[in-house]
Design brief:
Distance between the termini: 49 Å
Strand order of the largest sheet: 11-10-14-15-16-17
Helix content: 40-55%
Number of strands: 17
Number of domains: 3
Structural class: alpha/beta
Largest sheet: 6 strands, mixed
Strand content: 5-15%
Number of helices: 30
């Protein structure tokens, strides 16, 4: 392989290090370190800190405060040090906690050295110039004037053409760059080669320099990575991320030609200094920092282990059929609701399962041109579901959406935007007042626009007629197996998806179901219920040996995690339903919602105690356009538990655990276990790592102050303020309260699974992605033994009792 081929391969490898960023209308949590999962945790922490300047582990001073506050013990630190092969006694670790912190030498970029005090920042200008271009290039209908572009050109060629006509180069003193750019090829690969020759970087620095360049515009790089992710799901490719790297490289080369010799000499000296700097101290500090992180995780797992039952609760009937069953998403918010629901009725059984209910589908709403995914983004949808309903209802929604779009266009158009406030301002007084006091309802997603609750019940999600009857039966069997309903099925089974109701919140999809690709679980619950209620499917299931009574009814429902209200979507008029049992169910859901709200309000409004005031506050939070914390979402998540429900039933896990029901006795071939470990567990890791990274380094992996957010490109993402890079991750308000106290403790996920160690080892060996997460300590995997004891996996076949 020649040098040119090596450089091309290196560029492709670096682009794979960037994690994807989903658009706002399907926003999901992403592990920002997903591209680095093949690297040991501490090793990556040292390298990112020493190249990009990005923190991956909390500052040791924070852990010192935890020790002083009694939240972390020296004993746990010593134990963690022993586990990770580091020595030291109590005095040594106390000295480390109180020691002076010296930031490592960071890899310098040329524009940073060209910045002059009292003058506009060159490095900030480069970021802004690229960001402005990309916002116009990728715009999804927000801008009234679209950037003229030729799709056949490609991203790099479009940027080159844009920059040649960019008049902002002159005021920055960069007008000579236009001449250099004019002589440059429109081919991105040739431009990368030219830039590399101009920069003349030492070979040992090239990979790190490319990464730092992409990280300097990480938000837009993440967006381009999403485009590549989506293309590869369809068996295609996308060159935009490589083109973006080319743009950033070319800017660096253009500035190299314009920079004064003294600045170039300083830059080269710093590059050599970084290259020959002793990195051992950085790696040693990262290893010690991981010890402190692991110590915090050990302290949390000790509390968690105390919640695991050794035997089923006496009040819970382990034999016989429960009167009602309800399947909830494994989302940590469901843990709180399930616990309170079971406390209302002893013979009410809840089940934890990923919110897509085992149906890998995409969904096309009437009037849409393309279908949207309603399954974990790691898995490709296998079934296409379409919406059906009365034409009048569908037309009503279409007219509402069209009027809304036309009104928005009128408000923003050149003909009316300057006179709009003067001519229409007074008519907005009522609306402004309603927004301020929370009289209006939350912002509705397009699915519900203009529809009443009664109209919604008349819409259906229909599986395609082309789906063979045998495939329908197999799908139903897979759902029931995943839910653990092999036997002992109640006559009334509720399938509860979840969503959130907020207003004026660009990231509202992030509060919906991550297992449903940033959508509510309504479609999946409806589709699964329709399938399981199908008489033909029932006949097929019984032919395969399933015990399912004709009187069994599956009802879809939706849990609003902002208000803790559960709405049964359809089917309450089914003649097979016992009216008394249905009334009891609705009353139980309402009572559980009240208790759940009383628990959750302690973190939102600690002074509220009255149940009526609590309910009003939760309802108002979703309607208040100024509310920066409608709910805490998944803040605090720290554990994933896959075990029979009796292990945790009645125990308060404080809304910090993803609860997935799993009984190995009902899974002889471990197919359900394989699905759990390779899909829901990985989704939980993505959620956990997004909260973790946004807490550790919000400047680089979070999206800052949500009060300053401005939507860019329609649904692409947000900027903080009116410029800069596209922001990723979570806002500060999603992680801290008004006193700046952390509401999310940065811990890696602890996965507790009640299954044979040999079966888990086999599944891990067959899944490269899962193996990297476990072996490189991006999460901790523990086995729950028969008596509730825990064994931690240290390697294949190496399970140590803890």
């Amino acid at each position: 392989m020649n040098r040119e081929e090596q450089f091309t391969t290196l560029c492709e490898q670096v682009t794979r290090r960037i994690a994807p960023l989903w658009p706002l209308d399907s926003y999901i949590a992403v592990n920002p370190y997903w591209g680095f999962a093949d690297r040991p945790f501490a090793e990556l922490a040292a390298e990112l800190q020493g190249s990009v300047g990005e923190r991956v582990i909390m500052d040791r001073r924070w852990y010192a405060e935890q020790v002083s506050a009694g939240k972390l013990s020296i004993e746990d630190i010593l134990r963690a040090a022993e586990d990770l092969g580091l020595g030291g006694d109590e005095e040594d670790w106390q000295a480390y906690l109180q020691g002076q912190i010296e930031p490592p030498m960071r890899l310098p970029l040329l524009p940073e050295l060209m910045n002059r005090q009292g003058h506009a920042s060159i490095s900030q200008y480069v970021l802004e110039q690229i960001s402005h271009f990309l916002a116009a290039y990728y715009d999804r209908g927000q801008a009234l004037w679209s950037l003229p572009k030729d799709p056949s050109q490609g991203l790099f060629a479009a940027w080159r053409q844009y920059t040649l006509h960019d008049h902002s180069l002159g005021p920055m003193g960069l007008r000579p760059a236009r001449k250099q750019l004019l002589a440059l090829s429109t081919d991105a690969t040739a431009a990368r080669r030219w830039a590399l020759e101009v920069l003349d970087l030492p070979d040992a620095v090239v990979e790190a320099y490319l990464l730092v360049l992409l990280k300097s515009i990480n938000g837009w790089a993440s967006w381009c990575r999403y485009l590549l992710w989506q293309a590869e799901l369809e068996g295609k490719s996308d060159a935009d991320l490589l083109d973006l790297l080319s743009i950033r490289l070319v800017w660096e080369a253009l500035l190299r030609q314009l920079a004064k010799p003294a600045i170039v000499d300083s830059w080269r000296r710093q590059l050599r200094g970084w290259l020959y700097d002793d990195k051992n101290a950085e790696h040693e500090d990262a290893r010690r920092s991981e010890v402190l992180l692991r110590a915090s995780e050990i302290a949390y797992r000790r509390q968690l282990a105390a919640c695991l039952r050794r035997q089923p609760s006496r009040t819970h009937r382990s034999n016989g059929k429960p009167r009602i069953q309800a399947a909830f998403c494994i989302d940590v918010r469901s843990e709180v609701f399930r616990r309170h629901l079971e406390s209302v009725l002893d013979d009410f059984e809840t089940i934890g399962f990923a919110g897509f209910f085992g149906v890998l589908l995409d969904y096309k709403r009437q009037g849409d041109n393309v279908a949207r995914a309603q399954a974990p983004v790691l898995l490709r949808p296998q079934v296409h579901v379409e919406e059906t309903g009365p034409e009048k209802i569908l037309q009503r929604r279409f007219r509402r959406l069209r009027r809304s779009a036309e009104w928005k266009h009128f408000k923003l158009s050149a003909a009316s935007c300057f006179s709009f406030v003067e001519t229409a301002g007074l008519s907005y007084v009522g609306k402004l007042l309603a927004h301020t006091v929370g009289w209006q309802r939350p912002s509705l997603p397009p699915d519900l626009a203009g529809l009443s609750a009664a109209a919604r019940t008349r819409l259906h999600c229909v599986l395609p007629p082309s789906l063979h009857p045998e495939e329908r039966v197999q799908m139903a069997a897979s759902i029931l197996t995943g839910l653990g309903l092999n036997h002992g099925m109640a006559q009334l089974v509720l399938l509860v998806g979840h969503g959130s109701s907020t207003t004026n919140n660009p990231h509202r999809a992030g509060l919906d179901c991550g297992a449903c690709a940033g959508q509510t679980g309504e479609v999946n619950a409806r589709a699964a219920a329709d399938l399981l209620n199908d008489p033909a499917v029932r006949i097929g299931l019984r032919a395969k040996g399933w015990e399912i009574d004709d009187k069994v009814v599956f009802l879809p429902a939706l849990h609003d995690t902002t208000t803790d209200q559960v709405e049964i979507l359809v089917g309450i008029d089914d003649p097979r339903l016992d009216p008394e049992r249905l009334r009891e169910l609705q009353e139980s859901l309402a009572e559980a919602g009240k208790r759940c709200g009383l628990e959750r309000i302690l973190r939102l409004e600690p002074d509220l105690r009255d149940p009526v005031a609590v309910a009003q506050n939760l309802l108002h939070r979703g309607r208040d356009w100024s509310q920066v914390r409608p709910e805490w979402a998944l803040a605090g998540n720290a554990a994933f538990i896959a075990a029979p429900r009796w292990r945790t039933r009645g125990r308060n896990l404080a809304g910090r655990a993803f609860l997935h029901d799993y009984d190995a006795n009902k899974d002889p071939d471990f197919s359900v276990l394989r699905l759990i470990l390779t899909a829901p567990l990985v989704v939980a890791n993505w959620i956990n790592m997004q909260y973790y990274a946004s807490t550790i380094d919000n400047q680089r992996q979070g999206c800052g102050n949500k009060v300053l957010h401005n939507v860019v490109g329609g649904t692409i993402g947000v900027l903080e303020g009116n410029g800069g890079d596209l922001r990723v991750g979570l806002s500060e308000q999603s992680l801290r309260d008004n006193t700046s106290n952390l509401q999310h403790e940065p811990l890696r996920l602890s996965a507790l699974v009640e299954a044979p160690c040999e079966a888990m080892d086999r599944i891990i060996a067959e899944s490269p992605a899962l193996r990297q997460l476990v072996d490189n300590r991006w999460l901790t995997l523990l086995q729950i033994g028969r008596e509730g004891e825990l064994r931690e996996r240290r390697g294949a076949g190496d399970w140590v009792r803890v």
